[in-house]
Amino acid sequence: MQNKTALGHIRVLDLTRVLAGPWCAQNLADLGAEVIKVERPLVGDDTRSWGPPYLRDETGENTSEAAYYLAANRGKQAITVDISSDEGQQIIRELALQSDIVLENYKVGQLKKYGLDYDTLKELKPDLIYCSITGFGQTGPYAHRAGYDFIVQGMGGFMSLTGERDDLPGGGPQKAGVAIADLMTGMYATIAVMAALSHRDRTGEGQYIDMALLDVQVAMLANMNTNYLASGVAPKRWGNAHPNIVPYQTFATSDGHIIVAAGNDSQYTKFVQAGGRPELADDPLYLTNPRRVAHRDQLVPLLMEMVAQKTKQEWIDLLEAAGVPCGPINNLDEVFDNPQVVARDMLMELPHPSAGKVRLVGSPMKMSVTPAQALSAPPLLGQHTSEVLGNLLGYDEEKLANLRTRKII
Is 182 a catalytic residue? Predict the structure, then answer.
């Protein structure tokens, strides 16, 4: 019996590339939507060549698929269309008429030149949901600037909060290890699209969604924003420490690192007792959290010395038994070997047309009736062009061959 899907009745025309847009489209595909990814003939999504590493085939040789591309394109069908040509533009308009959602991340105004903007398409299909993703949005003085995740992390305040303290070695601003502005924009775009679908299903009315990386980066600072707005004092970088709680940070063990999050005085006492230093709980300087915060520069070196005496696993076992919140800092080998990650099906394997099979990360959306699932690997460039244009638009082999000859598809 085939599983039900939440979005099996929805078709998405995906004109996006790189990460934020494809991430949104991949979420929709995981939830069952039919996603048609449109790419430039012969070239494709930029991320297809963002390697190494590349996916390897069964003989160990590199394929043409970069690992970066694989991260955001599972579950989609891939077609190639030259949208700079009149006939390519007509193909996109015909596909839009057959779709519920259009996603795009072109520069502001670029698709209007091609007659593929929202105002043009909504005249053909009034219930269309059209989502644009750009660095700075469709309005404002920066609207026409190109937006890049790294730059937005800096502009949006994230890097003012992230990194080691300025007065410590290695101090200074630091970007995140993944493109968080892109990824969070993809997530917010997914939510906005789902809300627009709900509205359309109730009213029959489509709408335009304007998503900007900078907007998202500002919004996701959460309590750091409100800390500033309430106090008027801009937060500063604390590295892996916490401005208000001690100890609440990383520590180096004899063979790795752990996180200790002692959120109250009882947990702190249990922590130092487990480390054989109970006197650090009785010292008047460290008796309460406010005192530990005030004297962190004296206390933390003592705790670092204590933690360095045992291995990562010894500390995890001791602190879990004592009820002290803690955790390891795992590399990805350890992440994918973790029994909890395995039990939650966060690693999967799908058949792949050139590599035989590909290992991918599973969806974190666990739903009891309409489970998220990926049924196909990230597609090869143009893998489904004939199928999609033939089935949806009724193009015969002669027409498809003619379009290929002229590099329209």
Answer: yes
pLDDT-derived band at 77 (thresholds 50, 70, 90) equals very high
The per-residue pLDDT for 1 is 37
Residue at 230 is within a domain:
no
Q: Is 355 found in the same domain as 208?
A: yes
Q: Say if strands 257-261 and 11-15 run parallel, antiparallel, or are unpaired.
A: unpaired
pLDDT by residue (tens digit) across 186-244? 999 999 999 999 999 999 999 999 999 999 999 999 999 999 999 999 999 999 999 88
What are the CA-CA distances from residue 352 to residues 17, 165, 309 (Å)? 21, 46, 47
Give the contacts of 219 (CB within 8 A, at least 6 positions apart). 188, 225
Which of the listed residues 328, 351, 383 is the one where a domain comes to its end? 328
362 and 401 in a single domain? The answer is yes
pLDDT confidence of 70, banded at 50, 70, 90?
very high
Catalytic residue among 14, 82, 117, 182: 182
Give the closest residue to 253 by CA, choosing from 296, 310, 299, 211.
310
* Structural domains counted in the chain: 2
| End residue of a domain, out of 328, 362, 384 | 328
- 155 and 274 in a single domain? The answer is no
Residue 188, in any domain of the structure: yes
Q: What is the pTM of this model?
A: 0.93
What pLDDT score was predicted for residue 374?
Answer: 87
233 in a domain, yes or no?
A: no
Q: Among all chains, which residue has been given the structure tokens 């090869």?
A: 380
Listed residue (84, 141, 95, 93) closest to 117, CA to CA: 93
How much of the chain is in helix, strand and coil states, percent to nearest 5?
A: 40, 15, 45
Confidence of residue 2 (pLDDT cuts 50, 70, 90): low
Question: pLDDT at residue 375 above 90?
Answer: no
Query: Can you read off the two tokens belonging to residue 393?
Result: 């638009």
Q: Which domain holds residue 199?
A: 11-220+339-405
Contact of 48 with 381, CB cutoff 8 Å: yes
From the centroid of its chain, how far is CA 329? 20
- 10 Å CB burial of residue 325 (0-12, 13-18, 19+) is middle
Is 3 a residue whose pLDDT tops 70?
no
